[in-house]
Specification:
Glutaredoxin, 2 domains, 5-stranded mixed sheet, 12 strands
């Protein structure tokens, strides 16, 4: 019984131990979005949208300010939520899709397919005026490399897990294809996004370009731990498990003590009694008769 309890506690503690990531600190030290201020996008490269239409990048700009999100279309962690969060912030910005801006979602993984692009758009943007002015774009490996370099977007491929560690960022681009701002892909403030788009439409570049280090990856590779939300969930469930085990141990130990006390009582036929020893007239033990 004691051995089983110890094993249960050991497994619970092991579950609370931090899970190691496949990538090391050195692998992902440079993973961030840090474009040069006012960097220009390569306007001549050709990109294909979710319908298969191929156009030069300058035509996707359409002489309007735009928001660009770089994503892995098959990512199962933050890429989908980032696209959805940016779309929601744009809807709340008060600007009109098509008239004031476009949303362009660009795959940085050359393996993403046309079907992947359709599924991402349907799941994360939807069929509404914003969806009508959202382009989910793909390109050849060389063109994608040129674009990610212009965006200052560095990603690392984890071969063991089959996924990328990459920044979760959104970029505001001027009508002539210059990067005006880079913003975290989650927690976007609609008012700030509106202001950035208005400034970009006037050709104004932000006085600084934010370096975005928010990472889309199942783990936080820099520390080798699960990301914050998952870590908190694991800790909460782990503590609940340990509390349950502690309560179980207390109950079982009490039962074991009661069982031991009963067995002793049964063995000696009830509570032990003291037998009187015959004594002589002087209070000494009487001698047995000769």
């Amino acid at each position: 019984m004691h051995r089983q309890l110890l094993l249960a506690v050991w497994f619970a503690c092991a579950a609370l131990a931090p899970a190691r990531a496949e990538l090391t600190r050195s692998d992902i030290g440079a993973v961030e979005a840090s474009p040069a201020r006012g960097a220009g996008l390569p306007r001549s490269i050709r990109l294909r949208d979710e319908s298969g239409t191929a156009r030069p990048l300058e035509q996707w700009l359409d002489d309007k300010s735009s928001v660009w999100v770089l994503a892995d279309f098959t990512c199962d962690t933050l890429c989908g939520p980032v696209v959805s969060a940016v779309a929601d912030a744009l809807r709340q910005s008060g600007l009109q899709p098509g008239a004031d801006f476009h949303l362009n979602v660009l795959s940085f993984d050359p393996q993403d397919t046309l079907e992947n692009a359709k599924e991402l758009k349907q799941a994360q943007v939807g069929p509404d005026p914003l969806g009508d002015n959202t382009h989910v774009l793909r390109g050849d490996a060389g063109d994608i490399a040129s674009l990610t370099k212009a965006f200052g977007f560095d990603a690392v491929y984890d071969r063991d897990r089959g996924r990328y560690a990459h920044p979760a960022a959104a970029f505001v681009v001027t009508p002539d294809g210059r990067i005006a701002r880079s913003l975290p892909g989650l927690g976007l403030d609609p008012a700030n996004l509106r202001l950035a788009l208005i400034e970009a439409s006037q050709g104004r570049i932000g006085r600084w370009i934010d370096h975005v280090s928010l990472m889309c990856y199942g783990f936080d590779p820099a520390s080798g731990l699960y990301t914050l939300a998952v870590s908190q969930l694991l800790k909460a469930t782990g503590l609940a498990t340990l509390s349950g085990l502690a309560l179980l141990i207390v109950v079982l130990l009490r039962r074991e003590r009661r069982s031991t006390a009963r067995s002793r009582t049964t063995r000696y036929g009830g509570a032990p009694t003291l037998r009187a020893t015959p004594t002589g007239s002087q209070g000494r033990p009487a001698r047995p008769p000769a």
